[in-house]
Structure formats: structure tokens, C-alpha cells
Amino acid sequence: MKFIKDRYKILKKLNGGSMSNVYLCIDFDKDQEIVVIKTFEWNDQTSSELYKALFNRELENLEKLQNKRIVSLLEKGMDLENKLNFIVLEYFKGESLNEVIYKGVFSEKQKIKIILDILEGLDYAHSKGVIHRDLKPSNILIDESNQIKIIDFGISKLKDSMYKDFTVKNYLTPKYASPEQKLLKNLDFRSDIYSVGIVIAEILLEREFEFEENIIEVVKNSELEEHFKNLLLNMIAKEVKNRISTVSELRSRFQEFNKKENKLYGIGFADSVLKRLCQFGYLENESRSEASKLIANDLSKALIYMDNDNNLRSDQNTYKIYGKQYEYKCVVDKRTDTTFTIISIHFPNKSQHNSNKEWAITHEGEFEVCISVTKDNDFDNIHDLISNFELEYRAKKLKNDQEISEKNSIQRWEKVLHILEEDIEVNKSTLQYRHFEVDSLGEKIIIELKNEISEKVFDDEQLLCMTSAYNINRTKLAGYCIDSDGNKLIVQLSKDASPDDFAKSGEISIDRRMIETALSRQKKALKSIQYRELSNPRIADILLNPEQAMYSDLFIDLEYASEMDESKQKAVEKAMQAKDMFILQGPPGTGKTTFISELVNQIYKENPDSKVLISSQSNVAVDHALNKIKDMLPKLSLLRIGRKDKLSLGAEKYMIEEQLSELIESIRKNSLEYIENLKNQINMDETLINKYEKILEIDRLKGNLEIIDTKILDTQTRLDIIIESYEELKNLNYELEKITHSLNKETEQTDDLELNDISKVFKEKFISFGNQFLIKLDKAKNLSADKVELENTLIESMYKSDEVQHQLNETYSYLEIEDVEQFYHLKKEVNITMQGNQEELEFISKIEGIQNEWFSRIGTDDKLLDVLIKKTNIIGATCLGISSLSYNSEVVFDWVIIDEAGRATAPELLVPITLGKKIVLVGDHKQLPPILDKNIQNLDLQQANIKLKDLEKSLFEELMLNINSNCVGRLEQQYRMHPAIGNLVSKVFYEGMLESKTTVTQRDHGIQKWDGKGVVWLTTSNSPKRHEQIIKSNSHQTYQNEFEVNIIFNKLLEMEVEYASKKFKKDVGVIAGYQAQKSLFRKEFETKYKDKFTFLNVEINTVDAFQGRETDIIFYSIVRSNDKGKIGFLSDARRLNVALSRAKELLVIVGDHMSVTKESTTFDNLENPFLKVYEYINFNESICTLEEVL
């Protein structure tokens, strides 16, 4: 037997009893959780009833018992194939108590702790009416931290059990069974007390009793302390009536013994406490003796509940102590400096008291309440207790603050999304256009605007809509703006858009539905976290408290498909072992995509039916991962969701549209072949069959046309009624003009009396008219909307009518008939000829009709998409892009792997997280922070007391720094950069932990002047032309530096000459932190340098746009150069990290080194990262150089 119920894979058989088998298993339905399964076989007819009773009894007992000292029941069931019942228990990694208690490894205090834990579990079972009946060391498990679990309730007795008529009295362990149990008498809880007494005696004596040994004599003659002897003898008395009657009493007795091992602290009380006790009626008089007894009784327990008191104004630290009923405020006694003094006492209600105690820190120990405390005492020093308390209190507060911070983060983002939603309602970017032209391929339109625009209104992520050609009151989706200049926009048309859809002049605006959809997706994700409505609800708890992340320490032996260094192998292993979430930090060039592809390989080796989502904030990252996975695992099916124009080269084949087309074509081909085979079976003249089918097609089309024409007539009638109502309103308006004209005429050259009469008549007429107007207006409230809807319905119906008529005309032409008479004559003639085969042909024709109807609809709804999704192994999409799928498809992913997770905002990241059972986040919090949408950056967030900087805090970073260390990994070898660059990045940004696995020879850039050098700083510090230029734009200012632009292009021209002589081709990235500098570079390139580079492929962009990218050579323009050493946002080490880590062979920094290293700290009091860069270059002259440019 390898599986139980095709769900639980058996790893190995464990030690079990004679009545059941016990196995260690993997649960494939719960992320391969390790479980223990106990089976009760019933293949032997003579014992099947017994096993059934045992199963039901253990099941009934375990369902009643939910306690941390008792193994938990997870599932139950029946396996018909293997003929057994089974129960699934939690896996508790430990060993049986009998394997450790005889070895002398426990101290006296540890023994008492183990005994108390056993008694706690047994006391709970008894409180639920359950008698265990088989307590022995082998039925008690203990782990490395000495936590225990009681197991095997197979023959336990439930007092109100529905199975009490069925006996299992013969199943017992004689050595531990009570005398009455051996005699098969009825049992009560004292039978368990006898058994646990034997177990406790073995624990305390560290020896195993022989079966026939006189245990009572052994205990009497042992060297145990008298109080232990007496208690044990009371537990194992032969006569039931002589035994201790309850486990609760036993626990109290052992707790008393335990107290002797605890710390003892002295505590006194002030006179004000005495007076307060009298004031509230707890004491009859101010007797310190009576007061000390009352307080001692309240504090008499083996645990101290302690908390900070932040409300009392005092020059001393004040602490709260919680008793059974009362709460005490204490300070260190100034006279002794080693004891507490109670300075205040409070009497809360029970619920409030219990609530307060939940937040307290507990310590083992007790207080001795003194009438008066002297300096000469034997108490333990109270400062030891305070020190331990302070440590635990700070840890708990940090954890609590973090949970509050996470909750606040969700609330903060909810507010932002709400403000953004309101802003969209108010501000809608709309431009008027007078004309547009279509490019030669019909894929783009060039729009001429009525007015010039000074800055970019639409970005390439915003879906645009334009005025409809069929109804000027409506818009249709157009596409995305890919470029703009002056009064021209270039729009890349969407897949379903046609230039004929749009009016030649009209309006173009952002499609609000797309923004609203993105907002809705993020809001839904936030709500899912709050209300635990995720595919894996445990993820929500981990997000609020990352330490809760769990892992399995079960050894796994992996065989890797790719060659990987030790840090990658370790990361893959830890990802597989993580139960719910794994976080991986991947510094630049460390091969995060290799990790992802190898992880996917291991996932499918373990479970070939897994469904995996590959996601990222970046389209490039998604495509790169999918291509790498496909190279490694070519048989896996991949699906890509997203815009075709945003996909990387080679990723189009994974597009959902491409694969849907292939699937539809495959279905169409198979369907047509099926019809053709049916026709061939009839064995008739094919021309005659075709004629018969066309006649049936005409009949169907004519029926459809009749239905459509009826709808047109009905729509036109309703539209005429609305138009008539419009005419009535026009007439009313005409009447109003007549009244006004009449009033003006009559008031000319009249005196006041006449004017009054005219006014009176006018009022009467106007009131009468007004009533008519209001009645008509009330009826016409929704006329405009109804009119538009009916007009659209009419247009669509007429279009369908024309389409059906066109199909009819084509069919008539095919049959070479011109009128209805010819049609009916042909129909009669064909029917006569077809007699005998008519039934079969009608059947085929009906199938063909259904088939054609289905062909016309196939792909227009989500049903086929659902089929495609279900058969696909891996789906790739951006964080927000995936939700367009999830709304229509009930898809849950076994694994969600998110690359560049540090760049996504919290709501963006949560969208894919909510869809997965197991989450893997890959990123680097030491690179760029989350990208905030332009719409968010432009919001006025001060009203909600929110700062943009708060929103840039990465959820990835929060998890990375706080998650359980077993659920986090870091890649430590980089394979991208020249050693000079790699070591620079390692020293400045990663505390030297990043190891370069490349060599100077492997990354030789071929520039003779800088042979062997990987990092070059061309400094402008001594040039009079070095200074930055301030560029003001609307409400903000940016910077550019013309001198640095000239330097970089001159160097590029020199490189072009040298590479041309060597016939080398290189990719070069020119990057800067400022948009204005990027624009200046591009302008100069387009106007002066574009045609001068053959061997250099030059790309110009911002630092932010280059994250996740790499190229042979990077020129980094610093831009900032001023006398004060101000560097603005360049001080962000994360952005500088990205800038310096893009190059594979050569990094050239261009700018004023003296200016950017002038200040040792940044505006937010962090270390200036340029100082370390400059220091590294100076100390590594063999591979780096600093050159002056004048």
C-alpha cells in the first residue's frame, strides 16, 4: 500500500498497536503537509465489528478533545480500495517518553514540568468525560523542547459514548493497568490516576519497572523525598477508594512541589493600599496582617503576570502585577532595592481583568507578601525579574507594533485608493481631435488634436477611448498612446479596435473603466486580507505576523536540472520546505530567474498536476522567466496574459489569444472532419447533398431574418414614441415663448394698475402651463438615455439584418436562383430526389447548423478560455494583469511565484498573493522601491495625513526582514558583472556578502585605454562647465547637465572607432536619474548622433527604467553638480545600486565627484553612498580608475 485514499502518500510505517497500523504520510491536498495516519482494517470478517468500534471510539474521543497536550484530529475517512477506516492526526516531531526517561537526562525541575504537562492533558480529557484506559510512556510523545502530547485514545472510554455497549476491556497494557482494569470491572477516572502514577514513578526514579515487580514497595524504599513518596503511593493504591480522586488535585500538589524550584520575590505594600482595601470593604479595619493574608492569597500561583504601567506619573518605573482578582501597581522599594512595594490596588470586573492579563508577560516565580520588608532578606533580587520582563516586553511590543503597522499599512492604502477613486470622478483628461490618419499596416492611428499640448497627457499604460463612429454620444476603446508631439498623438490600436469604429473628429480620453478595474482589483485584494478570503487564509496571518510562517524540516534530496551554486540550491530546498510562504533576496546578477526555473522544475517533479502562476510588476520579468522555464521544461504548457505590444520578443507564442486561436482552429478542424465522415457514410452525390444543405440553410436564415425584422419594427415603434415625447416638449417650449412674447407686448406703455392685471393673468397662465410642463417633464426624465439605448439597438439589429440578408443572397447565388418561386421549385425537386435519405441528411444538417452557430460564437465567451486555463500548467501575468483572468475563471494556483516583488506596491502585490496556496516572493529590497502610479503621485494626500514616502515602503522588505528565518533565503554569487563592478556593488550595498564568480578575462570590454579596468569615473570636478542646470516644469523642478551629455557622446564616438577597427559590436546603456537629462540625451542623439553608431547599439533611459535589465557597457550621468554638495534623491542608495549594477563589462560614471561626496550624510541622515563608491575606486586602482575631464 503506497497511498491511502489516493491523497496520502505513505512515507514509512511507525510503531503501532495490535489494533491499528500507524503511518507517516504526506497530504497532497494540503501543500504536502506531514501527517500521521492511523488505520483500522476490516478485511477480516470476524474482527471487522471490533475494528469499526475501535475506530468510532477513537474518533468520537478525539473529536471531543482539542488541547495542546493531546494530539489533534485533522481528518477522518474510509478507504474502500484498501478496506480500512482511517483518522489523520497532526504530526508531532518527537519520540516516545519511554525512549528518554530512563537515561537520566532530565533535571528535577524538567521532570516536574513534564509531569505537569501530562497531567494538564489528562485533566482536560477527564473534564470532557474521557477515560484514556491505556496511559503508558509509549503513548506519550516528547520533543526536543520537552513539549509533550498524549496519543492513542483507541481504547479510551467516553462516559456518554454511543459505543459503551461494545467492550474493549481486554485491550490493555498489564504493567500500567489498574487492578480493577485487569479484573475487567467498570472504570472511572481513578483508573487513569493509577496508570499515570506508574508513569510518574518511572519518570522520577528514572527506571522501568518489571511486569511482576512490586511497585509500591519500590516506591516506599526509594530515595525520593517523602512528599513525592506519599503522593505516588496515594496514586497507585490498590483500592480505588484510597486513591486521589481527581487529576486537578494532583496538578495542584505537583505545582506546589514546582514552586520550591521557582524564584521567590519579596513584596510589601504602602499604607495607601491598606486604606483602599478598607475603603472598598475588603477589610474591616486597617490590619496589615489581614491585608498581607488577602494579598498573598490573591498572588498565590506559580506564575507572575507582569506589565508596564504607562499611566502613572512617577519618577520611578512602575509595573503592574496581576493576581487572581486584583491588579497591583508596584515600584522597586527604595529601602531594600531588591523587593517590590505595592503603591496602588485596583478591583476590575472579571472580564476586564482577564483581558488585561492576556497582554501581560508571564514569569515563573512567586511573591512572598511581607507586613514589612527589611534590607536583610533572603529573597531573589527583583531586578532579575525586571530585566527578564523588560526583554520580553520589548520583544512583544515590537511584534505588536509591527502588526499594528501592517494593519495601518492596509488602512493607509485603502484611503489612498478611495481618494484616487474620487479624483478619477472629478478629473477626466479629455482632448478634442479634428482628424486622424491610419498607418500603412492599419495598426496605429495618427491623431491631429485641436490644440497643442505642452506636456504628455497620456502614458503608455493608460487605455484610451474615442468618439464612436456610430453614435457620437458614446465612446469605443481605441488603444494606447505610444508617442505625442505638439498637436499629434500616435495610438497603438487594441486587438479588437478598427479605425472604422471611430468618428473622424471628436474626443479622446482615458478609459475610466480600466483605472476603475485596476482600483477594484486592488481594493478586493486588501479586503481579502482583512477578511481572510484568500486561497490560503494562513497567508493573511503571515502578512500581519511574518514570524508565523512555517516550514517542514523533513529532509528532501533534490536532483537539479541546471548547474547551480550552493546558495541557489539551498534556496530551492528552503522554498520546497516552506509551508505557506518563502522570501528570496536576489542581489543584481545572482540569477533569480535560474532559481525560479529550477524551483518550477522541482514543483513539477514532485506533483505534475501543479498549477503555477509566474507574476511580476514588470512584463519583462514575467517573459524572461517563462522563456527560461520553457527552455528547461519544454513539455509544460504555458499561457501568457497581457498586452501584445508590452510583451518581450519570443513571448507572443504564449499569448492567450494565440493559444485560443490554435485551440479554436483545432476544434474547428476536428468538427469539420466529423461532419465529412458522416456525409461519406450516406454515399450520395456530393452536389445533391450540398444543394439540400443550402436549402435548409436558407430556411434557417429566413427564420432568423423574420425574428430580427420583428425586433426592428418593435424598436422603431418605441423610438417613435420617444421622439413624439420630444416633440411635445418642443411644443411646450414654443408655448412658453408665446406667453413671454405676449407679456412683453402687453406691458408696453401701461400704467401700474394695468400692469397688476396683466401680471395676474400671466400668473394664471404660467401656473397652468407649468403644471403641464412638470407632468411632461416627469414622463421624459429618462428619455435621453432610453433614446440612445434604442438607437443603438436599432443600429445593431439593422446591421444583423443586413448580415443575414447578405448570407441569404450568397446562398441564392450558390444555388443559381433569383427569386422565391425558383427556390421553392428547387426545394421540391431536391426533396423528391432525396427520399429515403432525408432523415439522415436532416440529422447531419442540424448538426451542421449547430456547428456553424457554435463556430460563430466560439471564443466570444469565457467557456473555451476556462478549458484552456484548466489544461495549462503555468500562467504568466503582471500583478494586476492576472486579476482580469480571476474574475472570470475560478482558478486557484498551487504556487504563486512573484519576481521583482520589491517593486510592486502592497495592493499590487496582494492581487496575485490572494490567488495562491503557496507564495514565493523574489526580489531585492536594496534596489528600487515600489513604483507609484502617476495618478497616485499627483493626489493631494495631506487630507488623509499620508506621505508618499510611506507608500514607497515595500511589503517585500517588511516580510524579508521579519519572516521566520527558515522561510527566507539569499543568493550570494553574482554572474553578470566584471569583478570590479561586482565587488563594488557588494562592498557598497551588501556588506561584502556578494561574491563575484566572473573573471576579468570573461568580462573584457576591449577598450585598450581601460584594459583590465571595470569601473571608470570621469570626474568633472575641476571643469568650469561642470554645473547642473535647473529645469522648471509646472509645480516642480528637475535637473540636466549639458556638459556630461557632451562628454558621454564624445566617449561613445571614440568607442565606436575602436570597436569598428576590431569588428566588435556592443550594447551600451546611457542612464541618468532625471527625466530632463534623459530627454536631453535623446534629443542630442536623434539630431546629431543617431547615424554615427554602427558597432554600438545605444539605448537611453532613466535608472528606474533599467532595473531588471543588463547591458555590456553603462554610462551613468550623475547630473548634480553644485557648490553646496546637494544631490537630492540621488542619495537613495537603492537607486544608485541599480545604476551601478547594470553593466556586464564596463561601468563609466560621469560627473562631479567632489560635489557628490561633499556631504557625509544625506538629508534623511543616512550615509552618503557616493562616499563608499569613491573610496572603493581609490583603493582598487588595478581594476578601477578616476580620470579628470576638463
Automatic annotation (TrEMBL):
SMART domains hit by this protein: S_TKc
Domain Protein kinase intervals: 8-258
One GO term describing the cellular component: chromosome
GO molecular function: ATP binding; helicase activity; hydrolase activity; protein kinase activity
The organism's place on the tree of life at top rank: Bacteria
SUPFAM superfamilies: P-loop containing nucleoside triphosphate hydrolases, Protein kinase-like (PK-like)
Coiled coil, from the record: 729-756
Keywords: ATP-binding, Coiled coil, Helicase, Hydrolase, Nucleotide-binding
Protein name: Protein kinase domain-containing protein
The organism's taxonomic lineage, starting at the top: Bacteria, Bacillati, Bacillota, Bacilli, Bacillales
